[in-house]
Amino acid sequence: MIVITAPTGQIGSRLLEILLGESHTRGEELRVIVRDPGRLPGAVRARVDVVTGSHGDAEVVDRAFAGADAVFWLVPPNPQAPSLDAMYSGFTGAAAKAFTTHGVGHVVGVSALGRGTPVAGRAGHVTASLAMDDLIASTGVAYRALANPTFIDNLLWQAASIRDDGVFTGTVTADRKAPTAATRDIAAAAAGLLLDRSWTGTGEVPVLGPEDLSPNDLARIMSEVLGRPIRYERQTLDAFRTSLAGHGIGDALVQGYLDMMRAKDEGLDDGVRRTPGTASPTTFRAWCEQVLKPAVQA
Q1: Residue 156: inside a domain
Q2: Residue 255 and residue 252: Cα distance in Å, rounded?
Q3: Burial of 43 per CB tally in 10 Å (0-12, 13-18, 19+)
Q4: What is the arithmetic mean of pLDDT over 157-173?
Q5: Where would you tag: which of 95, 219, 269, 289 has the fewest CB atoms within 10 A of its CB?
Q6: Which tens digits make up the pLDDT trace of 64-112?
Q7: φ and ψ at 86, to 5 degrees?
Q8: Closest C-alpha among 218, 234, 237 to residue 226
Q9: Three-state SS for 81?
């Protein structure tokens, strides 16, 4: 049995779709942990075992992990978490104990690039995510951390600005090239690991996308796909702080985002070489054509 956390999010919903497509031929049972089962499509609810509640709750994960062979682990956002440690390792603590209690064999977690780079120890959310990986690995479970760069899909948060003003913003230098990954590719990587559980020990699986692009590159490609000029506007970190606080994000998480973005501009995501094994398939142009353009035109 495979247990999927956060099954209604961008990655979890796509992962669930992939696993449901494979379950008939592979004979895999699927179980999901979800706060509101009503957010799952009816056809999905009919084919999975549903455990209602938060996967940060000890009683919930104790029920959910009974009989589980593998778990997909994703920490949900919590804008009011008192600290980054509480949001990542604190939230994961009950699950880490339940992995051991129930003899879960394999866990695949959503994490971040950066381990081993000079700025990794002061990279906010990334640093906290890597500490969460260490906590899970310490249980003795076979663990693979999906080491991700910035999600391409984060641009959807700026769809209105791209549509109305022809502008998207960020804090990194306009010509700094870096990897980005589509959430559907992250889900596909997770599915492959969950279905083929021949791996052992602990480690990272980078998901780097097929190319490194700068914000200026992104603007050029968006302009070509959308058929209108799109430009990148660099924000100061102070302006970014004000924007985050205005969306109700607590001080600890705001500082974590600032530290993470500062580290990315200093090369946080540059430490892993792209190979056939670390490159994921979705190009930024394809993502713009298939995802961004429909969102902007909606």
Answers
A1: no
A2: 5
A3: exposed
A4: 97
A5: 289
A6: 999 999 999 999 999 999 999 999 999 999 999 999 999 999 999 999 9
A7: -65, -40
A8: 218
A9: coil
> Residue 297 domain-assigned?
no
**Domain span including residue 44:** 2-151+181-208+268-281
Q: What is the CATH number of the domain that holds 70?
A: 3.40.50.720
Residues 6+ apart with CB under 8 A from 114: 120, 123, 126, 127, 130, 147, 263, 268, 269, 271
pLDDT tops 90 at residue 203:
yes
Identify the pLDDT of residue 25: 60
Percent pLDDT > 90 in the chain is 95
**Contact of 108 with 12, CB cutoff 8 Å:** no
Instruction: Record the pTM.
Output: 0.96
Tokens coding 227: 């058929």
C-beta of residue 91 within 8 angstroms of C-beta of residue 75: yes
pLDDT band at 24 (very low <50, low <70, confident <90, very high): low
Per-residue pLDDT band for 26 (boundaries 50, 70, 90) equals confident
Assess if residue 236 is contained within a domain.
no
Bridge partners of 110? Answer: 146
**Nearest-angstrom CA–CA distance, 280 and 83:** 32
- pLDDT digits 0-9 by tens, 240-256: 999 999 999 999 999 99
Q: Decide: 119 and 266 in contact? Cβ < 8 Å.
A: yes
Contact at 8 Å (CB) between 282 and 184?
yes
Helix (H) or strand (E) holding 111: strand 106-112
Residue 255 lies in a domain: no
Instruction: State how many domains the chain has.
Output: 1
Task: Give residue 210's identity as a one-letter amino acid code.
Answer: P
